[in-house]
Amino acid sequence: MINIFSKKQKFEQDTIALDNGKSLKITFMQHASLLFEYDGRNIYIDPVAEFDDFKIDFSNLPQADLILVTHDHHDHLDTKAIKAINSDGTQIICNEISAQQLDNATVMHNGDSLSLFDGEIAITAVPAYNITEGHLQFHPKGRDNGYIITLGGTTIYIAGDSEDTDEAYALKNIDIAFLPVNQPYTMTLQQAAKLARAINPHILYPYHFTDTDIAQLPNLLKDTDIEIRLRKMP
Q: Can you give the C-alpha Rg of the chain in angstroms?
């Protein structure tokens, strides 16, 4: 499961066979930073070079075909990391406030959808916000994005910094879900488990967990058919 991704850096990786006969490789970089490799394309989600004491040298990593930024907090938007993987053909998608720090980015608002790369990949921006009283200021409703990514007949939910919102409970046909679990900023383990039961993904990855003990999550979902995969994301 642990592969050498570059000469200097190691990350955990999963490779998932898709219904169209192709595969999706997921690299778990750190905290909320992910890399999807699909059909020769590199899709980065919230690439950040430094979080706490963990650092990534993005200059050693593959150039991006697509970069998705959920919002402008420092652990999700890093202009230096983006510059290192940006090229003339890179498409950057973000929420409105993040676009103020980025060049040539496409803004998506909650509910917007895009078809990219001749229809190979579809992106929908979905709401990501806090609902717990006293936490609403961290991620106000309508500002930030989560993303639904559809590729190879597989639908992936990247929740971003969100709690278990009404809009999240309404999601259908999710194959892979990335749910954040670090209150007060995102969900508790109990919220994530409740949402997972509702949307019933085939595979669930907790992420953005910092000090949360994610080892408890499988026990909360032991009576479901959801495959919970715990991966190291410093």
A: 16
